[in-house]
Amino acid sequence: MELDPPVDARAMKSRSAILAAFTRLALEERVEAIRIADIVAEAGVGRATFYDHFQGKEAVMLAALEPLLVSLGSVASGRAAPPYIEGVTAHCWERRALFRALLDSSAAKAIQRRLGEIIGQRLAARGLEGPSPALQATGLAAAQLAMLRSWVGGEVKCSADEMAA
Hints:
This protein is mostly helical. The chain has nine helices and no strands. It has helices spanning 9-28, 36-43, 47-53, 57-76, 82-94, 96-103, 108-125, 133-152, 160-164. The chain is globular, with a radius of gyration of 17 Å.
């Protein structure tokens, strides 16, 4: 039986600091304006440490969003209970400034691509592959993000519960 390697607490601390730094910076300025140097300075880590954990700014952003994208992927594949969905939408609403900034940035395509991958995996796991699973997953990701963008952007007014439904 193979054991998982021990978790390096220092590496986890650095990774968490980088993710938190990116999130703080994304709340303050456009995602396009954030530089690796800004993230490194905000996180209090060295540039080499940054690259030990991430390939670049887009990788940090996607890692920061991964829990939310996994949640949205579960919703799109019909694998999420209503209370879970309501929690996800409430989270998005509470952080709507950040989500508005991300979904209106040049990073939106990478977010949609990653969400499409997650949805595709969820659909395949359920045996719900249609004639074009990749197209189906991409369409679902685009639709979900369009609804989310419209909601957090104030174009569509509804409660978090209505959004969840």
